[in-house]
Every structure is written in structure tokens, then in C-alpha cells.
């Protein structure tokens, strides 16, 4: 039976049309071009998967290019983090490139523009230039410096390069059209002065090219065939093409810019500036805080690369922006971890249970299946003894018929173990239950094949043997913002919507098989959710992050409201 072919997205249609018109498939080349001024976030994952996915589809090379033209905001730390994230997502780049590789060529082309009368040095203030540039409905007016002589422009530009002017005093502008309906075409700035050390070129340069001048020319130098970017750059395409027209060699590939919609995500922000604000103000512990929408934060929280790729594939590529509910991302990680995560037992809010008729000092090791979704996962041994922990919420002295967990006079099954019956409980002076006394049916052992072991009871609880329990710090994460669109309010700052309960740290107890769990390992704590071992974990102190619950708790809240 033939599989239904996957439908093409509009980006793939663009490529297919170019190939149908005779563009050589061997000339296809794509790129992912992040600016190293922060960590990559879930929004970048769409661009990464798009470009590298196209590379896989068409067996074409994909460059990883860092648009590093602003030394005031860029750092080697961000370069390293970006490379790690792209590799972790499962992609390999053909060439590692930097816009700074082309600083000399870009400078030489700028000199050429000046000599051709297509660029000039302007020493107006930024306020004067803003006024002179006009409005979307009114044309701009020429700068008083627009008609400087070529010789004077060359001399001034050389002085800019030599560091003879202060920042903000002089810029190089392209001479295009001050009456253009596209304001980006009204003599855009090509170079500005920045007396700051660059993370790669150090202090070799004190003038730096602007993004629009750099981006298309870098694509051309790398012979990128298709340059895909988000919709906010749609108006930049005319300028992209104009700059290419000034340097293009018709015997070489001319890059084509096309745009797709950027995805916005509920209950989060993806602006690097705002993410940096969260870091600098200590709202989070760093760029890789598990509450952050960064790829490194998601990885630390326990998300898998496959779940993120599946998420990106599910939301697809669109022409219009929309808000994607992060619950879909949660669904993707649940679906993935359900297949691969070992099942274990951990109790996060423990209350002591004493099995009064269990032999004193005795213990036994029971068989427990690692993952019912994976036939190859095997099983492990879990210790059982007279005293165990269960979840405090799993016991009530009295409860209605819909409460199928432990209550006085009623039975439940302990997962992989025995059926127990609650007889009494002990309380402290404040009325809090400190201990539950139960009896067990010694013939009801799971898997023993006895008639009693097959007896049905409605409730099954997870538990941990107190004698063998391993103490662990458990970090319970919730959404960082209480509002669905925290940065969409004109009258409020996004920081007003920070969720004060986005992190709760508790002490739990886990089964001894987890004592040597490796950092990053994923587990399903049965009946609770998915957890992974945090970077802070040590042999002396286990630390788990809650990745996601077994069910979407926010969906329940939304239904109530």
C-alpha cells in the first residue's frame, strides 16, 4: 500500500518552482543565521528545523552563519551556546561562517559605492536624520551632506575607519531614494562607529556594518540560494535586492529572500531583550533556567530534541503570525517520553504507612516493569518493607464513593506489591496525620498468580520503602507567566505577569534504583509526571526537575474559568 505523499509547505513550493524553471539542484544552499546576542529559544527552533530540514530534503548544504556585527551585545558565550543547541537538535552544518569573516570585503564594497556616488558620510545627529527621513505618508528630504564630493566622502570614511571620530557622530549611508514609499530605502545607514572590542576581531575595526548591508552580501559570498527569514523582514527585501544589485556577478548564484511567519507562544516571551531582562533581574537563574523558552532551558527541563522537532513539524510553516499554545509542546514531550522514559516510583509529599502485620525486620525485592510501552525495556527490583511512604493526598479518613484511594476501612493495591487496608491513623497536636496503620494481604502479591493476587480493587497507589528511600530535591516548575500574551499589553509591562509560583522546591523520596541516575536522564514518576535529573545533581544530593505532568493542569484551570 502506497503512503500518501506529504504535502509541501509554501517554502518548499518556492524551491520546487525554481527547480522547475531550471535552477540547478546542485546550486541549492541554505543557511541558519543567528545573531550571537543571546541564547536560542523555541521560536528559533522553527527556523533551524526549516533550513536544516530543507538541506536534508534536497541533499543540499546548510551553513551556520553568525551575524556578528554588533560587538556591544555579542559574546563568545552565545556563539558556543548556539552551536550546542543546533547540534543537540540533531543537525550538522556544512560550513561555520561569521559575518565578521567578510568585514574587509564589505568595507571594500562600501568604498566602491562611495566611488560610484552611491554612498556618502553623514554627520547629522540621529534626531536630525529621523526628522529628515520623513514619514510613511510624507517623503523625506535630502541630507545636507548627501552631495558631498566623492573625495570628501572617501576621506571621512577613512577617518571613521581609523577611529578619529566619536560614536554617533558619523555614519555611512547608501544614496538611494528619499521619496521611496518604503522608508527603508530612504538612504539607509550602512556603517556606524562603535569603539568596542569584537569577540572575534577584537579592536581591528571601530566601524561595523549594519545588518541590512551585511546580510544579503553574506548570503551572496556564501552562495546561499534561498534566504528564508521571518515576516518582519518582508519590507527589507527591496533593500536586500538593491544591495545585491551593486555587487552581483551574473555568473554566480543570486540569493533569493523569502519570508515566513514568526510563531508566538502563549504564556511566554521570546524577545531576546526581554529574556535578558529576566536573567539580569534575577527572575530566573540564567538563560538555561527550566522556566525559560530557550532551547537550553527546555533541554535542562527534560525536553528531548525529538519532541521539539515534532512540535515544530506539527505547527508547520505559515504566512501569517499566530499564537501557539505551549500546551501543544507539552503534548509532544509527553508523547515522546511515554515511549522512552523508564517508570519509577517517587513520593513528593510523604506520609508514613506502617503495615502492622508485615514481619518485623523483613524486606523483599519485587519485580517492576520499566516501561510497558517498550518491550525491550526489561524490569528492575524494587524493595518492600514494613514501613513505606505514600502521597499525603492519597489518604483520607473519610471520603465519598468516588475517592478510590486509601481511606479507613477500605483497600487499595500498592503498585507491584500487595493489597493493603487502612485500619487507623495517628495525628499530631495540629490535627495533621503523621502515620497510617494498615494491614496487608500476604497472598495478594502482584504477579504471584494466586487467586488473591488477581483480586480487583479500584485504587492503585505508588509508594517507596522508607528503609530504602533516597532523599531528593524536586523542583516543580510551572509557566513563567500567568497571562497568555504577557508582552501584548500596551498599558502594562510584561514583568507584571510573572508567575510567583513558577517554581516550588520540595523534598521527596525516590526508589533506590535512582541513586545513580545520570544527569539529564528522563523518568516517569508513576501517577505524577515526567522528571529528569538536573545539572545541579550530585551523588550526594539528587536533584530532579519536573518536565511535565501526566495531564495538562492548565487545561483544567481554563475549563473552570
Shape: elongated
What is the strand tally? 29
| Largest sheet report | 7 strands, mixed
Mean pLDDT: 95
- Category by helix and strand content: alpha/beta
State the separation between the terminal residues, measured CA to CA. 47 Å
Looking across the biggest beta sheet, what order are the strands in?
12-27-28-29-25-26-13
Low-confidence stretches: 554-561
Number of helices: 13
Rg measurement, Å: 31 Å
Helix content: 25-40%
Strand content: 15-25%
Written account of the structure:
The protein is α/β, with parallel strands linked by helices and 561 residues long. Strand 27 and strand 28 form a beta hairpin. It has a 7-stranded mixed sheet with strand order 12-27-28-29-25-26-13, with helices on one face. A 7-stranded mixed sheet has the order 23-20-21-22-14-17-24, with no helix packed on it. 25% of the residues lie in helices and 24% in strands. It is elongated, with a radius of gyration of 31 Å. The model is unreliable at 554-561 (pLDDT under 50). The chain has 13 helices and 29 strands.
